[in-house]
Amino acid sequence: MPKIYLIDVTNRDGVQTAHLGLAKLEKTMLNHYLNSMGIFQSEFGFPVTKHELNYLKANILLAKREVLYPIRLEGWLRAVSQDVEESFVNVPGLEHVNLSISTSEQMLMGKFQGKKGFSDIISLMTGAVALARKKGAKSIGVNAEDASRTEIGNLIEFASAAKEFGADRIRYCDTLGCDTPFTIYEKIQRVVEKVKIGIELHCHNDLGMAVACSIAGAKAANDAGVDAYINTTVNGMGERAGNADLVAVILAVKYAAGMGSYQLDERIDLKTAWKISHYASYAFKVPIPINQVGTGKNAFAHASGIHVDGALKDRRNYELYDFEELGRGEPEIVETGRQILLGEYSGIKGLRNIYGKLEVEFKNDAEARDILELARYANVHKQKPVTEDELIFIARHPEEVRMLMTLTP
Predict the structure, then answer these.
(1) If one looks up domain 3-276 in CATH, what number appears?
(2) For 135-151, how does the pLDDT look when each residue is reduced to its tens digit (9 = 90+)?
(3) CB-based contacts of 197, cutoff 8 Å, min separation 6
């Protein structure tokens, strides 16, 4: 039976969002939370972008040590041979890639200015796929940018060529968010019936339908007999109006009417939802909307007399799912007295005080001072206070943290 898997692209699409960004430690922590959540794959960065390379290598080391495991770490690159060559030189151990190229007539004329025809697109893409497989890629996704505005015959030809040259999946990109659940279902169904290849759904939220279109596209892929891979971002962060929200997509697959016969990746664990949503909000410096699906302040709040009465009698009267499932319900302790924080100028006594509360012990003073220096650098690196989970991560994986925070122009 085909399944629905999640490929989170926060560390690629999310960080491309105008006015926003993440430090490399923060990107790593998101991978850590995504792994805890049972997400199939993280699009963790750009292997042809120089400032990403130490971060990418450090995360691959963490994967080999089974810290970031079993999540797959996948690099995004253009579907051109030059990018493939550079990526596998820049990031030894890279095993999973997504190769992206534009396919619509609008992009051929408006982006490439008519210098490339559709046959050129096919040639570039197939050459890149074949080379990536030769270089040792264990999985290859091929991204049809602006698939939603690509003529269906061309899209089928593109998918067929990708499959022939060794691609595992096609990423259907609704780049402008112009699809509806009805149009995306029909187009995905037609492509899969002709090509029989796994489908990724990459939907943007320009019309507020990213989650709905993602679910409809995944349903079409499964109905046609292939696995679906929904692209998500934490809190829906992404270019322009954003992407399909991670938590909302999971809840929709689990609880939306008519989805009961579809199988979500069994590794998914929503218990991490509250934590990852709030960490992303802190890291991006973007507040969670009060009405955010699942993790917003009002997601389980009731004030109207009729609703309160009904919810107290039986939560199923006015709540579709349990708040405990999302890792909510635990009391949050807010320190209102003395606070000892670790900053870029902190000393060893402050370090021991904080790590003592976190129940982290050091073998000797030398190890403690080494972690102190890393914590100081982390504050400079992030330009914001280091969280408790980050401090624990630094203490447990100092060498990888040192690598990912090393940025040399």
Answers:
(1) 3.20.20.70
(2) 999 999 999 999 999 99
(3) 159, 162, 163, 167, 168, 169, 170, 191, 226
